[in-house]
Amino acid sequence: MSVIASLKGAGKEYQTGDQRIVALQPTTLELRSGEMTLIIGPSGSGKTTLLSLIGCVIYPSQGELWVDGQHINSMKEKALAGSA
Ligand SMILES: Nc1ncnc2c1ncn2[C@@H]1O[C@H](COP(=O)(O)OP(=O)(O)OP(=O)(O)O)[C@@H](O)[C@H]1O
Ligand SMILES: [Mg+2]
Predict the structure, then answer these.
(1) How many angstroms separate the CA atoms of 64 and 57, rounded?
(2) Using only C-alpha atoms, what is the Rg of the chain?
(3) For position 33, which CATH number holds?
(4) Which residues constitute the domain of residue 76?
């Protein structure tokens, strides 16, 4: 089945002052059409951050992200906004 989204070591970190917050640890995952995927984990483990990455709302801080065959890392913000 076709791959909708693919993450290879994709993670997200936020820097506020001298504090670094790991929102999503490097994650490797493939989502295919017709599949059902459950995203489970305790509060603060990065579920919403993962969905925001897949939804192209935020860029990964590390790793690679493809959505619908497009390499999200290398897309400019305007192109990303128009790609939905
Ligand atoms: N924009 C942001 N700036 C700083 N820290 C953030 C930001 N977004 C998320 N975080 C932090 O990253 C971690 C993961 O957050 P996230 O919202 O992805 O968790 P979650 O698994 O969806 O939690 P919940 O089950 O409570 O919804 C948390 O520690 C959160 O405080
Ligand atoms: Mg959440």
Answers:
(1) 15
(2) 13
(3) 3.40.50.300
(4) 3-81
Task: Return the ligand number nearest the Cα of 11.
Answer: 1
pTM of the model as a whole: 0.94
Q: How many CB atoms lie within 10 A of CB 62?
A: 13
Total structural domains within the chain: 1
Which ligand has its closest atom nearest to the C-alpha of 45?
A: 1
Protein residue with its CA nearest to atom 9 in ligand 1: 23
pLDDT in tens, 41-77: 999 999 999 999 999 999 999 999 999 999 999 999 8
pLDDT of residue 1 exceeding 80, the answer is: no
Phi, psi of 6 (to 5 degrees): -140, 130
